[in-house]
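Can't paste images in this forum, so I'm doing it all in text. The chain is below; anyone willing to post the predicted C-alpha cells underneath?
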Amino acid sequence: MESVKGYFDYNVTDKCISNNFENIAKQLYDFGYHTIAINQTIDESLLEESISEGKKKKKIERQDIVPSPIDAKIIKGCDKLKILNRLTISFTTQDIINRIIKSPNYRKYHIIAAQPESQQAFQFTCTNFEADIFTFNPSTKPNYKMQRKLYYLLVERGVHFEIMYGPAIEDSTKRKNIIATAHMYHSFGKSRNIIISSGITNSFLIRNPYDVINLGLLFGLSDGQAKDAIQNNGRNVYMHGSTVLEFVCWKLY
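Text version of the structure:
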C-alpha cells in the first residue's frame, strides 16, 4: 500500500478545477497539505433522470450513471503532492446504491463518502454501505436522527465523520448548521473519528493547518482531536478506502 504523508484535505470540490486548480493545489501544498482529494458529488435526482433517459433509449445496461474521476495533472513544484479522487453520494433511499456500486467508474475512486438525506438512508449507511466518509449538506439541517449506537457502529466499521470549514467561513447559515452538526457528533460520539476538510470552491477559503486546528476547537474538538482530524485520521481514511475498494472488487467479481 502506498504511503500518504503530511496534512490531509479530502474535500477540494470539483468547482476548483475550473477555478485555477493549479494555484489552489500549490497553495495547499505550501501550507503543508501533501494529500488532497478532488470531490465530485452525485445527487440522487440526477441519477433518476439519467435512468429515465436510459430506459427511453433502451441503453440502461450500458449507461454509466457515475461520472469518470477527474484526472488532475501533476503540479509542477509539488512533487510530493498526492491527488486522490473522491465520490460523494447524496441519497434518500438505498435502491440507487446498488446501481452505483456496479458502475465501472465507481471503482476508479479512491475515497467514497455517503451523504444520507433521510432516516432510511442514514440507517443503511450505518449498517450496510461500505463508505469511508460520512458527510452532510451544510446548507440544510440533517434529515435524520442521530443515535449513539449508530454513531459507534460507524466508528467500529472505520468510517470517519467530516466537518467542513470552507462553507462555515463562506456563509452564516452554513456556519450554524456545521457547528450544530459538529456538536451533535460530540454529544453522541465524543467526536470520535472526525476529519476536518476544506470543502473549498476557491483559494480565498483555504486556511493553513494551524488555523484549522483552532477552528476544530470551535467544532467541539479537543486540541488532540483537532490535530488528528487533519493528520492521523486522514491517513486512516486512505487505508480504509484502499481496503474497502479491494473488498468491493472481490465481491463484484
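The longest strand covers residues 33-43. The two ends are 21 Å apart (CA to CA).
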